Amino acid sequence: MRIGIVCPYSFDVPGGVQNHVRDLAEHLIGLGHEVSVLAPADDDTVLPRYAQSAGRAVPVPYNGSVARVNFGFLSAARVRRWIHDGNFEVLHVHEPGTPSLSLLACWAASGPIVATFHTANPRSRAMLAGAPIVASAMEKINARIAVSEYARRTLVEHMGGDAVVIPNGVDVGFFAGQQPRPEWSGETIAFVGRYGEPRKGLSVLLEALPAIVEARPNTRLLVAGRGDEDEALRSVPEHLRKRIEFLGMVDDVDKARLFRSVDVYCAPNTGGESFGIILVEAMSAGAPVLASELDAFSLVLEGGEAGVMFPTGDAAALAREAIGLLGDPGRRDALRASAAASVRRYDWSVVAADILSVYEMVTESTARVTANGGPR
Amino acid sequence: MRLVLTEYSVALVLLAVLLVLFGLYLSWTATRLDRLHVRLDAARVALDAQLLRRSTAALELARSGLLDPATALILAAGAREAQSADPDEREAAESALTRDVRASFEDPTQAQQVRAAHGGPELLDELGRSLRRVQLARRFHNESVRAVRQLRSHRLVRAFRLAGRAPDKPNFEIDDDPPVALAR
């Protein structure tokens, strides 16, 4: 099948949507499909072979923060040319509800269109103002996919209409197959993410650390990700600082090895998560998960069946649960077993097959994707 | 006198411009509505194809000889009913097929038995896939119905009869929950 995928965010910035698009494209190519990805890129960005640049994304204020967006007639013309040259059987756009390449693609294309919605966020004024503008582009979408029940609810509330839920994919075998590292094993807790961002919740974990170390003196906390170490350590008592190791940015292999090594992976996030793919990665690698009770996390952890949850932001509860987990190998093994069963449905083999079913369904009528003559 | 004439003609031009703009808006709305109707027709074709695929998968499994005769008969009858139902009984018949499949595989050992037999995994996987595809196709179809209805209920669309004589298409409401043993 000839498939055109539109990614609204640049590949050289890390992010869930970009990762999803890259993995999906590579998986579909592996299955023998022809895939072209259109994404924003700077002139010096090295793109994967299957990707095409839509030009540089420009930062503009939107919805209370600064979004990097491709807009204007030049971008629209580029999108139209890509659609025209690609002669796709199906067009798959990501996050078309925001001002983005995906919205431009909906605007410029006719024919079978599939859209995936990633974000879950509260109703915003920007969205209300934009609703009628977005509506006519959205009407062209034949099939809507939400990456989680939570993202689906957001979509239903903001724009009306329904979507099917197909989760983000994870290469379960990759995470399950990595070797643990001895220096990261033995009463260790892992935290992964840009820890400078308050919503990632490292401060909650650090607040819980004194109680955890008091009960289990050998506990070490391994922090992977980008951020300012001194800033993060400011609130930590002097004698506890040597119990914390900063690993800096880690690649996918080291991230998997970290998950394979530790006794507990902790996700103390305080909000802003629509899916929690990192939980699925940790579960795939066999790390017992201790996470805050966010809706998105609760869905992945099956309400506590496949991982332990604590009230969001509650450091005392986090400490209690962590101490319990660190001292009970049997419980950790039970969590590993039930997590291994529940991550199967997130494996790319399952997810890609489901997405392909959607493609086949919308291409049931023989029409191809064509570029409109002009804006309408 | 000349001044009055000028004002008069300005008003006339203004009126003409407004009329043209209004006409453009109406034609744009008609285009949107037409596009939505086309999308709904395509969704219905896809849904019918998936329903047929599902009943065919159930029928093949029933005829495979891998099931006990009672289960096979229930599945075969359900599939036949679904395939030959009149349009107004379609939803009931498809729901009944879903319940037949669910009843057949409620006991998880049933699926294990079939899976262990030669050719069993293929038949079960095809049935499982088709159950999922019916769920997907039905969601997309009903979402298209909603979009059409929303635009058709627009005041201007009604006043100018932009929907023409296209009939109002209903949702397709069936029970399509697969049995646990065949769910993804």
Short description:
Chain B: Keywords: Membrane, Transmembrane, Transmembrane helix. Chain B: This is LemA family protein. By secondary structure, chain A is an alpha/beta fold.
Overview of this protein structure:
- The complex is a heterodimer of chains A (376) and B (184).
- Chain A has 376 residues and is α/β, with parallel strands linked by helices.
- Chain A contains 14 helices and 17 strands.
- Helix content of chain A is 40%, strand content 19%.
- In chain A, the strands form four sheets. A seven-stranded parallel beta sheet of chain A has the order 3-2-1-6-8-9-10, sandwiched between helices.
- In chain A, helix 1 (16-30) links the parallel strand 1 (2-6) and strand 2 (34-39).
- In chain A, helix 2 (73-86) packs across helix 3 (101-108) and helix 3 runs parallel beside helix 4 (125-138).
- With 184 residues, chain B is mostly helical.
- Helices cover 76% and strands 0% of the residues of chain B.
- Chain B is built from six helices and no strands.
- In chain B, helix 1 (2-63) runs antiparallel to helix 5 (120-152) and helix 2 packs antiparallel against helix 3 (90-104).
- Chain B is rod-shaped, with a radius of gyration of 26 Å.
- The A-B interface holds A 136, 139-140, 142-144, 160-164, 345, 350, 353-354, 357-358, 361-362, 364-365, 376 and B 28, 31-32, 35-36, 39, 42-43, 45-46, 49-50, 129, 132-133, 135-137, 139-140, 142-144, 146-147, 150-151, 184.
